[in-house]
C-alpha cells in the first residue's frame, strides 16, 4: 500500500476528484439548508401571524359592513316613517270624524297604508286608559293626583318602529276611573 506522501498529483485519477467534489457539494447544501431553515422559521412565523391578523381584520370588516348596511336600512325606514307621521295623523283625524266610512276610497287607502306600515313593524301606542309612561308619553296637562296616572285624552298618537320610539304620544294625564 502506498502512503499519502508517496502519492504524486499525477497519480490522482479524475474519478477520485469527482468523488471528493461530490462529497463537498453534498455537505455544503445540507449546512446551507439548515442555516436557511433556521433563518426562515422566524420569518414563516411572522408571515403566518401577519396573515392571521389580516384574516381577522377582513372578518371584522365584513361583519362591520353588514351591520352598517342594516343600520342604514333601519335609518332609512325611520326617516320615511317620520315623514309619513303627519299623513297618519290626518288619517286618524279623518277616522275620528267619520270620513273613513266603509266603502270609502279613502278608507281603502288608509287600510292599505296601515297594513304596509304594520308589516314594517310600525306600532301605534297611546290609548285613553293606558298607564302613563314618561318615556312614551308627553303629558301636556295633568288632571290627576299622580298616584297611578293613566292617559286621559290623546292629542297625538305615539309610534314605535320595532323597539325604537319614533314619536312620543301627546296626552293628558288623569287618575284611573274608580272601581265600582
UniProtKB/TrEMBL annotation:
Report the subcellular localization.
Cytoplasm
One Pfam family of this chain: GrpE
What Gene3D superfamilies does the entry give? 3.90.20.20, Head domain of nucleotide exchange factor GrpE (2.30.22.10)
GO process annotations (BP): protein folding
Its GO CC terms are: cytoplasm
Q: Name one GO molecular function term.
A: protein-folding chaperone binding
Is this entry keyworded Chaperone? yes
| Keyword terms, alphabetized | Chaperone, Cytoplasm, Stress response
> Where does this chain mainly localize?
cytoplasm
Could you tell me what this protein does?
Answer: Participates actively in the response to hyperosmotic and heat shock by preventing the aggregation of stress-denatured proteins, in association with DnaK and GrpE. It is the nucleotide exchange factor for DnaK and may function as a thermosensor. Unfolded proteins bind initially to DnaJ; upon interaction with the DnaJ-bound protein, DnaK hydrolyzes its bound ATP, resulting in the formation of a stable complex. GrpE releases ADP from DnaK; ATP binding to DnaK triggers the release of the substrate protein, thus completing the reaction cycle.
The record describes its quaternary structure and partners as:
Homodimer.
PANTHER family with a match to the protein in the record: GRPE PROTEIN, GRPE PROTEIN HOMOLOG, MITOCHONDRIAL
Give the record's family classification: Belongs to the GrpE family.
Supply the name of the protein. Answer: Protein GrpE
Q: Which gene encodes it?
A: grpE
